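Researcher: I'm preparing a figure for a lab meeting and need a structural model of a single chain. I don't have an experimental structure, so a prediction will have to do for now. The sequence is pasted below. Please return the structure as tokens so I can convert it later.
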Amino acid sequence: MKAEDVSNIDIANFLPHREPMLMVTSVLEIDENSVSTQFHITEDCVFLDNGKLSETGLIENVAQAASGVVGQTFFEKDDLEGTGNKLVGYISAIKKVEIFQLPNVGETIVTRAKLLSRFDTGEMTMCSLEAETFLDEKLIVSSTMNFLIHEV
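Model: Understood. Here is the structure written out token by token.
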């Protein structure tokens, strides 16, 4: 889905997280293998350290953004309110994380994730995703993580 198709979707309806733990502001693009999200860093973000988004906050942003690739398949295509399912996701392994820069309050980061592998058991989905986070087109995070996602 391109940006014009997802711009009216409230991402909070599709993630189990709520403020102050919600680390994705909007979805820019999404398809069956990839996602691009945006996060605007505000002063009330719980992951701030001396006016910068901490390493933990960057990892949580990547996890929430990346989970959208597989998580979307648990919803019906016409369910734009996210009422069809309740999902829980877990980071099962952080295979690689490289953090090159911490963004400041007031800045907006863009995270792009792509699916590397997926295994559905019927009750749970196990997947591996690769993600990169950018600040003004400058790479600030490179990561690979494994996730477990299931309905509750």
